[in-house]
Amino acid sequence: MPPKTSRQPARPTKTGSERSQEDSVWKEMLTDFLQWFIQFFFPDYFQLIDWEKGYQNLDKEMIEVTTESGFTKQSADKLFKVFLLSGEEELILMHVEVQGYKDEEFAKRVARYNDLIRLKYNQEVLSFVVLSDPVQDFRPAGYVWRFHRHERHYSFPMVKLLDFRDNLEALAQDPNPFALVVIAHLETQRLKGRTIELAEVKFKLTKRLLARGNSRQDVIKFFRAIDWLMLLPHELETGFRVRVADYTKEQKMPLLSRWELDVIEEERVKGLEEGMQAGLKQGMVILLVSMLEQRLGKVTQKAKSQLNKLTTEQLQELGGEILNFSSKAELTDWLQQHSGQ
Known about the structure:
- This protein is an alpha/beta fold.
- Helices cover 56% and strands 12% of the residues.
- The chain contains 14 helices and seven strands.
- The protein has helices at residues 16-32, 34-41, 43-46, 59-69, 106-121, 168-173, 178-190, 195-210, 216-229, 234-250, 258-296, 301-309, 312-321, 328-339, and strands at 55-57, 76-83, 89-97, 125-131, 142-147, 150-155, 158-160.
- The strands form two sheets. The protein has a five-stranded mixed β-sheet with strand order 1-2-3-4-7. Strands 5-6 form a two-stranded antiparallel sheet.
- A hairpin with a 2-residue loop joins strand 5 (142-147) and strand 6 (150-155).
- The chain is globular.
- The termini are far apart.
- 29% of the residues are buried.
């Protein structure tokens, strides 16, 4: 395969595993930095939450809801429990749409997730949406269902990253690190096919990140996000990493050594592989639930939870056993033997 040149796209069309990894990057940022995320994108809600009490990440619950919903579109959907300054508990559902195209089903998916969580936990849930696609007129802010005189509405606050593109200088001065993540996203879109310019912008953004005085751990995590968003061809990436290592050494900033940069690159490759496996597994679970319900009727929530805990190999084994099940009891026995429950 010939090496990429500066005339080729800065980012090739993403494979499923690459989309899964970008999805994972956003999920990691939401998990680690929810407070900064809401402060940057939804400041009016930030003022209502008691951040001193922390927040709870509900990944397991979100996986169960995703499986039940039947939606397989790629996005970073995260569910958290927070405490309001009023003393109440609140569930908040964060959606970061990382696919770069218009999705007509998106608002419906947000509404459906919201309904499922509300019914499952008997608690209202607040949905927030951040859209990273480049389509100017794609701005879903709600879902409406109508039939004759019946009508149901659900609306949610939505932020479009595209709207920040005329304020890059102000973003560069914003102390919230998510401002740099937004710049990285927008500049990657703008400089598509201009990889030498992209490499220079990436270096400048990295210097800004290093100069902000955040902890070493936080700097590395935000660098990983910027690094993933601003993918470079191999030869430019190598030069970029040398520049960063030299810069931190000159400035006496022991934050991103060449060794650490190499480790981050290794983690990205590993993440691609894991992301691909995670996406495959989720799709297998959804397919098996559908097949089991066609044969045995409604699959219980406990059974779905057990399915989510199986390995890919065990799911493949179950697929070969489905036609041998004549009752839900047989399925229950099989799952108990293989899931350890």
